[in-house]
Amino acid sequence: MLTIITAEDMEYELLGLDGSYAVKLRQYNYGCGSWQITGIPCCHAMAAISHSCGRDPVKDIVVAFVHQSLSKSTYIQTYRGMIHPIPNQKIWLEIEGSKLLPPHFETQHGRLKLQRKREPDEKSRGGRSGTVVCKNCGMAGHNKRTCKNEKQPIQNSSRTKNKKTNSTIGATTSQPPTRKSMKKTKELHRQQSRPNHNHN
Length: 200
Hints:
It holds the Pfam family SWIM. This is CCHC-type domain-containing protein. Helices cover about 30% and strands about 10% of the residues. It is an alpha+beta fold and about 200 residues long. It has a domain at about 5-75. The chain starts with a strand and ends in a 7-residue tail after the last helix.
């Protein structure tokens, strides 16, 4: 919601929620500065233009408040000149002179940087987050390589206990019979089933 206060010589004061600004239609000037930069009236300047027009249609008058460089006549005048055709590069005249070479590049020492330098107000790229825990002493803030504390005994976790119980269970259970053992049992059964022909 804007409140327009009319002054003389096409000057207006606009009162809004974000403050008050002065509009000078003859100088193409507005307090926020966007009209001067873009050359196109902003929404506040358009409110002053429509107020100055009264009952006349705004679309016929607003063109006069747009910068001359953005008009159709200026666009046509810019591209009015002729672009002459260019011959093939093979028949260009060779001019003697020093050849243009790229600047000398020196390889810096150390590992190559894979990330670019960021601006001071630019947010850092999100990566791994968390606290490093040492595997030697169990303290946070350093790793095993830089640890200066004594090595602490490692407590058996539930995973290692499960492995031990599984190994003992596997040892007590009987293994499945192989072909060789099955063949031996068959021969024993045959020998036991044969009649004994030895007489006293």
